[in-house]
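Duplicate of earlier report; Fibronectin type-III domain-containing protein input re-posted below.
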Amino acid sequence: MQFSLISSRLVATPPAFILSFNVSDGPPTNVSCSVNGNGISTELSRVIVNGPGSVTRVTLTVRLREAGNYQCTVSNTRVTDGNNGDIGGVQATSTNTLLSISVSDTPTGLTATRLSTGLAHVRLSWPTVSGATGYEVYYQLSSNTPVSVGTTASTTINITSGLFRGITYTFYVVSYGSASLPSGNASVILKFSDPVVSDLMATVITTSAIILTWSPPTAVVPISYEIKRRCRRVCESSVTSNSETSVLSPHTSTGIPPYSQCAFDLIGVYGSLKVFLTTNYLANTPST
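Output:
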């Protein structure tokens, strides 16, 4: 009888894993399992794979995260029936099997860094876990069901879809080995708050130019900045507009007539998304 760790659902708490083996000489009617000598609860299914009463595939779903020796005893309650346990030409037997399973070490030091490619893009990173063959990353909203992002053999993963700005997420990572249960999880909380620049200011003003400076937004730094300018001479009613792309701080806005009042919008570029970081900052040029 073969007994092996077939698969595991890593995001379950505790994880669910499947033990699958074949039983010959009569379909089992009872399967009892224990870990380290203590009985455990399992979910059992049976499928005959090689003719009635010949070979039966037994699948056990176990919801437990505990290292140790998993032992299952398979029996048929009819062994006392028929002719010395022979039922329809098949000898029903009792047998047992044993499998040792370890638990992968829990990752530590999980960090979440927002990416400039979008307002709900994030990079998760963590140190290597010794002996792990892979990792699974998932996230959760409040008490909602965990959502798996996917598995990776790397210690870094970028998430660039499925998340939304303004929402707080808890991100998790678990490690697993080729023949081990998934580990406990490391977690980090991140809110995708909108970026804001609160210190846009004019540091130098002449009759035809205004030099603007600002600090990067604390939430997430954009790929680039744009400035939209609207100016009106104090003695006139008409407004002239101007847009400048790929600007840096400090930035000199030129071509402004003397004695003008100007309003500036600072815009952050995040991939295909543009976000107003500061709006309607006012500055005036002198008359002479």
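The CA atoms of residues 82 and 88 lie 8 Å apart.

Merging into the original ticket.
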